[in-house]
Amino acid sequence: MATKILKSKRFGYAVVGLACAAACATAAFAGPNDNKLTIDGQEYVTELPAPEGSPFDTIYSGWRFRNEATQAMEMDDFDNPGFTNVESGEALWSKVDGEAGKSCASCHNDAAESMKGVRAQMPKWNEKAGKPVTLEQTINGCRENNLKAKPWKWESNEMLSMTAFIGSKSRGMPVKVQTDGPMKSWWEKGKKLYYTRVGQLDMSCAGCHEDNYGKMIRADHLSQGQINGFPTYRSKWQKLGSIHRRFKGCMKNIRAQPYEVGGEEFVALELYVASRGQGLSVESPSVRN
Amino acid sequence: MQRAFKASFAGLMTVTLLSVSALAGPIAPDKVKITDGELKTSLTGKPGSDVKGAEWFKNRKLGNCLACHVNSKMTDEQFHGEIGPPLDGVADRYSEAQLRAIVVNAKAALSDKTLMPGFYVSHYTDPLKKFAGKPILTAEQVEDVVAYLKTLKE
């Protein structure tokens, strides 16, 4: 501690900091807002006592940190730009593709039944692969093995349409990922990555989304970085984007070399981040800014 | 004779020039030593410019200090972050040597746990390739920012 700035100075800052905490509370600081998310008459869980082992007391959907104009877009499927993808996903569902002459519907019939709850459990343990798989990887697994069709690119319009369509069949259901058994070591790996400071700015996910959520980082209102809404439409992207695209963007912002999209690091991180939002309603496709 | 003299004279000149530039050149990031939260000497050996410092302070690709700090004197900039303490009157609280140390490496000057990045550090974990081995700010830019911070009095 001798190498750090003198304690008296630090104390001075602490006092200044406290004075501001009181005086500034009414001004700029804003945590999550109190709005309620209802879509089609159904109420969504955007706030809930944190699951066991969570660093938070309360967890919040990222929706609660957006402004009212953005929030309103998600409340009405006609205004939600992600819904054009849900519609094209529905068309792709029953479109025959690949050498086996099959479509998704050939095996899974009505997606409203067969895909219910799927998004809520991703990433999921895959016994054959011996590792957890994301929704994108599951879709491509079916394309390659069952349809004998070419895999879709991770961020392609087809993939985003299919993940939005399948995701929409879990809307309103609680996020429920497995973290024990064979998932345990992956979860631990994801947790380690979440707390590791990286990049030229030397920050971790936790530095922003755990220690400072609710605060402004320049023009952005920091959320807890939950993934219950993906794929997400962002005005900045002007289209839907995947969870791994978001992770990559956050890493580039701190000038860190992002891990590979679909690679083991991001799958582990996805599992860990999903577990921090256990119980939040699936909102796919959500709207953020 | 004449030639030999010229050659050795030229040699002498280079030696003197080199040692002068070694003295006058900026201190490299990995040579900077923060002691008791202070860095007394200018990284460039010269004072910086507060006018330029204000630019680096708000520039999103350089200091981007406003990402995390409120600065009530920068009313021309719309968004000020709330992550760190407001920098209003910061020069009343810290000496120039302390401000320099904080900008250079807040983790060494203030606390290992602080979120504030080190702006004159050369070793980072997994940086994007184009930033590898480079500090966020140059020595001149650090001195400019320090000169600007010195103007923040209440």
CATH class of chain B: Mainly Alpha
Structural class of chain B: mainly alpha
> How many distinct beta strands of chain B?
0
Structural class assignment of chain A: alpha+beta
What order do the strands of the largest sheet of chain A run in, or round the barrel if closed? 10-9-11
Record field, number of beta strands of chain A: 11
Low-confidence stretches of chain A: 6-28
Could you state the order of secondary-structure elements of chain A as H and E?
A: HEEEEHHHHEEHHHHEEEEHHE
CATH topology type of chain B: Cytochrome Bc1 Complex, Chain D, domain 2
How would you sum up this structure, described in words?
The complex is a heterodimer of chains A (289) and B (154). Chain A is of the alpha+beta class and 289 residues long. Chain A has 2 domains: 26-79 and 173-288, Cytochrome c-like domain (Cytochrome Bc1 Complex, Chain D, domain 2); 83-168, Cytochrome Bc1 Complex, Chain D, domain 2. Helices cover 38% and strands 10% of the residues of chain A. Chain A is built from 11 helices and 11 strands. Chain A has helices at 7-24, 68-75, 83-93, 104-108, 111-114, 135-147, 157-168, 184-195, 205-209, 243-253, 264-275, and strands spanning 38-39, 42-43, 47-49, 58-60, 124-126, 131-133, 216-217, 220-221, 232-234, 239-241, 286-288. In chain A, strand 9 and strand 10 form a beta hairpin. In chain A, helix 3 (83-93) crosses helix 7. Chain B has 154 residues and is mainly alpha-helical. Chain B has a single domain (26-149), classed as Cytochrome Bc1 Complex, Chain D, domain 2 (Orthogonal Bundle), CATH 1.10.760. In chain B, 39% of the residues lie in helices and 0% in strands. Chain B is built from 6 helices and no strands. Chain B is globular and about 35 Å long. Mean pLDDT of chain B is 88; it is low at 1-22. The interface between A and B is large, with 36 and 42 residues.
